[in-house]
Fold:
Amino acid sequence: MSAADLSFYTRDDEKKGQSLDVPIKDGNIVTINLVDELADDPSELTGFLSSENSARKHWLAIASAYCANHKLTEAKQVVDEAAQQPAFSDDDRAAIDIYRGWLELKFAEHAVGKARFDHYNEAQAVFDHLPREVQAKAPATLLQAQIYLGRDRLDDARPLYDQVLKRDPSNCIALMGKAHIAMAKQNYQIALKLLQQVLMIKPTMRPDPRVAIGVCFWLLNDHKMAVKSWERSVKLYPDDSHRARVLLELSKLNDTFTKSVTDEDFIKNYTESITNFGELQTANDYVPALVLASYFFSKRDFDTVRNVVLQIGEKIIGEPLGDSDSARFRAAKTSKFESVVLSQCALWLARCEFAEGNFTSAQKHFGESIKLNDNLQAKLGLGSAQLNRGSVEDAIMTYESILKTNSKCLEVVYLLGVLYSQSKSKRKHELAVQSLERYVRLASSADFKEPVMVNAFLVLAQLYESKDIGQSLKYLQRAIETQAKIERDVPVEVYNNIGVYHFLRKNFDEATKVFASALDKTTGPFTSEDGDVLADLPGDLEVTIKFNRARSLEVSDQAAAIEVYKQLEQECSHYVSSKLRLLFLDCIATHSKSYAEIKTELDELLAANASDLEIRSFYGWFAKNFGKKVGLKADADNAFHRDTLVTYESHDCYALISLANIYCIMARDAKSDDSKRRNYYSRAAELYIKVLSIDPKDVYAAQGLAITYIENKETSKGLDVLSKIRDSLNDITVYLNLGHALLEAKNFAKAIENYEVALGRFTDGKDTKILSFLGRAWYLRGQQEKHLPFLKRAKEYTEKALANVGESGSASIQFNLAFVDFQIAEFITKQPANQCDVEEIEQAMRDLEQAIEQLRQLAGQDDDHHVPYPKADLAARANLGSTALLPRLQTCLDETKSSIEAMTSRIEEAKRIREEEAARKRKEEEEQAALAKQKEEERARERAKELDQSHIWAEEFRAANVDVVPSDNDDDGDAADAKPEKQKKTKGTKRKANGGRRKKKVLSDDEESSAQDTDPEADEPESKKRKTLSNARVEDSDEDLGDIDNDLF
Structure:
């Protein structure tokens, strides 16, 4: 098949071939205008071609012309007539069959639903009937590849395209097919390169690859190049650029939502886009219709939305849809693109149902949308529908599945954080913190730059309440800053919470300022989410914030706080909290009313509000602490709490804890009776456990339970409970009780650590009670470990406590400070004199004098100053300090000074002796060095003399000219002796080696031998004797000579 036979598919020659020249039998040529002379009924043209026995190319040219004019049925009639011509050869018939297969693909391109797959089946049937040798050729291979591509069998189509490209690397149809597969597999960069290659090979290729090139650019986030590609396609093919125009309008709609600066710009651009999409609607293009569906949805015209999407569904599945049953969308066999479209239809049906509150139906449609196409929007909608139906766990599972494939989806991360926070599980709360903090980071990152939901900060602040109030404050402050960026403010409740957090951290001044700022914000109108005016809310908020402000004012300005409470009492008479607070201050601070008057007012409140648990709790506290002063029975509080539990509320936690505390007191009082003691503690534990079953976060009950264990000598069990409380509840009392328990267990280091955590994390570092606890802990540790610095630390903390205490509690802390000074003085007097320091003793004496004076002042004060001990005891202790302890310190000081003087004297004496010894040693060393030098000089002189004597002997020997005649035996002996001597010289020291060389130099045995050999008449025994004597003599001298040489040089 030639390239012209495929022109119907590529439509490359539709503008070039405006006419067709057909030769006829008489030799003439008939010209057919393929534009103006194409009749609606091709019978006349097919009859003419059949009568003239026209060639295959003329038949296919006519068919291609009909295709170019979108008359596929007429084109098929032409091809069918051509296939029946008897004059055609087998090759012609094969080419016509392949053409028919391509024509079926063209039909499939314009068909929908089941009809589309019917045409693919027809094309497949055509291919199957082709001879095998024809199937192996490029046109048939391309036909099979295109069939696979249309059926979404991408892995089957790709090797066929590769076969074609192996024979013809510039085959544009195969290149575009591979690009389509790459796009389907989201390999947009590869698809873009293939499409650009097609454009370089054939710039006039149809369908226009510029459309797909633009899509690749868009998916690669290069929107400008995508728009340029589509605009170029529209410019080149203005009459056949529907898809490019739709894509251009989609890009404009995207810009409308993302780049509109003002509301006016948005309205103008959006209206223009919707109008253009209305004009772009066609029977087989569903994108404009879906865009219009979104427009009708925004207008809440849900019926129109349903009509639009159901019409789309009917066109795709090929049968009418009487209702909104999206499940029928999956009944028909559809292509991948059609499945995506049907998924969008189901999504819009779901959103309509969701907007109308039909969450069950919405969930069903969302599920169908996901089954048709696994898309994020439908999953988000499914989770929302499940939430609104109350299926929280199902919603969490849905969102978690989304997060596995879309880890940076802000909406899912935020929703999971909020849902986790609503759980009672500690693990879920940790996950909530992680999710919400990750959401804040993602939204603030450069990739998103999205405004953070204020609720995320509020939930995080709430989650951190039990862990770290500082973090809660931080997130509430960030919420205020986030709203300030858009010139909005957070709800007044947020400011109130900030004030409460500062109050809990003992930052009372800051709390007062925040509450005052919150009060200023209660003046404006308040509206609900629906726009309704909330008339009562400002007043309610004002009452609460005023009360909180008064609570924070109590520390710095109690009088001002009392005025606020009185004002609240006048403005809101039924607000009993302010009344109770006034009565409480009267009891412990102001004493403006007598206890009888306070009791009378409490009786009136109780009569008017008998079931108010807050009033009943306060009455029980008053009866316990001041009942004797107003004539109440000793166990009035116990009876009152029992009445509360029996008559009004059996689960009143305060009453239960109060009863448990009473049992603990009774257990402590029953020290002599172990059985009673255990029984009381057991009852207390039961009550504490009951409170914990009602309120698992009740720290008083939990700690009471731990204390019962500790008091019952189950210290490790109690510490375990307190440790668990600390892990789950970040409260100051937990650390304080842990400190107390560890102190009782004599684990002073851990106790101090817990006290310091309580002081640093929950207060401003000036809490008198905790400072006193630390002083006591350091004191006990110092006494236990006999370490003076620890006692000094106890004194430091006690001084800090005294500096921050009010007048009412100063007497006890003054006594504590004096007591520590006494103990430090006592400790110093018991130390050995050689371990004492003069400055420490003098400081201890000054501190002791101050302590004595302080005790005398306390002994002389009035009873109203809450003196901790009887005056007589204080005076006696002061006298004891001045008469006994102070003199002992003076004695210790004198002994220490004497010891130091003696020590100094001994040190000086030792130093003198050491210096004398050093001088003596230096003198001995110098003498030994001089003597060694003298001896060395003498040895040198002796060696020099020996050297001179050796030279003299050598000269005498030579002058004597002794003849020696060696024998054979002697030679053998010398040879035998020479070899070991040589080895000895090799392995010996340098000194021996030098000696050997000197021997060789001084003596010349060869000369002697030669002199003796020249005298044959010499007597042999005589020669032998002389040689022996000569050698012995010379060797002795030679060895001495060698030693001299070594010593000298």
Residues 871-960 form the longest helix (90 residues). The two ends are 112 Å apart (CA to CA). Confidence is low (pLDDT under 50) at residues 1-16, 964-1049.
